[in-house]
Write a structure and sequence with these properties.
54% of the residues lie in helices and 9% in strands. Strand 3, helix 7 and strand 4 form a beta-alpha-beta unit. It is an alpha/beta fold and 356 residues long. It folds into two domains: 167 residues, P-loop containing nucleotide triphosphate hydrolases (Rossmann fold); 91 residues, Orthogonal Bundle (Helicase, Ruva Protein, domain 3). The chain binds adenosine-5'-triphosphate and magnesium ion (MG). The site of magnesium ion has 3 residues, from helix 4.
């Protein structure tokens, strides 16, 4: 079907047309054609092969900052940790690159590795087992809906894989969405073992809420089995610049268009979070193209950020409201203290001593 290629203006137009129903269907091919031309002109303007700041977790664009390199090392350890058989946990703020690293990991796996990748873990324990079975291509006929049969089938598969020298890895992305019951089911899977070796390596990826979840007392059995933890933090300012340059070069760009003050502004608005960097940088590039500029300056970045980050106005309002409340509170306290002293001074029982 006709897909909106740019998330910005064209994406908004497409979704508003979609909302208007089938009577607008005839406009779609024409729009698609128009957008394709605009896209091509945009890429030609900056002499790019493809858009540099797409928000899909494409491993071709990966920039390995020191922190991303460390995180990847943890994931590789999780895949290869052999007999230790514990969990590996990778957490990080929203949009810092967990899924992208996971995609990169999948490309770097040794050939003797089989992976069950669960991307949407809002599942009951049984649904989770079924999803793992499907990922590993285990025949599930007659077993669906039966916890014991599913676990038995998985056990048979894992023993067979072990006998063939294969390593099986379960990766759960967005693991902060797992229920406590599903997490308990995941823990029980680590009991599938031979006398000497765990049969399944498990990697949990998730937002910071995953750390809170695993700190719960009722999940301490699982928590104790985590043998490696890593928390991915946003990029610093230097890394932000390297990140932008890297992605731009991968997209085929040779003339990096962002001025130094634009990079500083990008860092300030995004706080070094790659997804926000991509969205703002993409919009700023589009604005530069529309104004027939080849350089993106601070002003264009600010315009883009203000358009994309509407919550900043809310932030300002909140800040104003907080200051006003603090001022009102301080004034009220002032009045209260003044009233207290005045009423004490006028009390009949209080003796006033005047020193000569
Ligand atoms: N190291 C990196 N190199 C290149 N691009 C990156 C990197 N890290 C993140 N990105 C880009 O940032 C965007 C968000 O990344 P990703 O989806 O991996 O984040 P996430 O941590 O999984 O977010 P969420 O918490 O929402 O699942 C993607 O466009 C991705 O390509
Ligand atoms: Mg993700």
């Amino acid at each position: 079907m006709y897909r909106c290629r740019r998330r910005s203006l064209t994406g908004e137009l497409c979704s508003s047309l979609r909302a208007r129903g089938p009577s607008y269907a005839f406009v779609k091919p024409a729009l698609y054609w128009l957008f394709t031309i605009v896209d091509r002109m945009f890429l030609e303007h900056f002499q790019l092969r493809e858009p540099p700041f797409s928000i899909s977790p494409d491993p071709r664009f990966v920039f390995l900052s020191d922190r991303h390199r460390d995180a990847l090392a943890h994931l590789l350890y999780g895949v290869g940790q052999g007999s230790s058989g514990g969990f590996v946990q990778l957490t990080g703020e929203v949009g810092t690159g967990k899924t992208t690293l996971c995609r990169l990991l999948l490309e770097q796996l040794p050939v003797n590795t089989r992976v069950a990748l669960i991307l949407n873990p809002m599942l009951s324990p049984i649904e989770l087992l079924e999803a793992i079975g499907k990922e590993l291509h285990i025949p599930l006929r007659g077993k669906q809906g039966h916890q014991k049969r599913l676990i038995d089938a998985l056990n048979v598969y894992l023993l067979q894989a072990y006998a063939e020298g294969l390593r099986v890895v379960l990766i759960i992305d967005e693991a902060q969405n797992l229920s406590a019951e599903a997490l308990e089911q995941v823990r029980l899977l680590t009991n599938l073992e031979t006398n000497t070796q765990k049969l399944l390596q498990i990697i949990l990826l998730g937002q910071p809420e995953l750390r809170d979840l695993l700190a719960r007392r009722d999940l301490r059995q699982l928590s104790q089995r985590i043998t490696a933890r890593f928390h991915l933090t946003p990029l610093d300012e230097t890394e932000t610049q390297q990140y932008l340059r890297h992605r731009y070069a991968v997209a085929g760009g040779s003339q990096f268009p962002f001025a130094a003050d634009a990079i500083r502004a990008l860092f300030a608005y995004s706080k070094g979070i790659p997804r926000l960097l991509n969205i703002i940088a993409d919009r700023a590039l589009l604005a530069a193209y529309v104004h027939e500029n080849h350089v993106v300056d601070k002003r264009l970045v600010s315009l883009a950020a203000k358009e994309i980050l509407p919550t900043r106005n809310h932030d300002k309002l909140w800040r104003l409201a907080t200051w006003l409340s603090a001022a009102v509170l301080a004034a009220a306290m002032g009045f209260a203290i003044q009233y207290y002293f005045e009423s004490n001074a006028n009390e009949p029982g209080v003796e006033h001593v005047t020193h000569p």
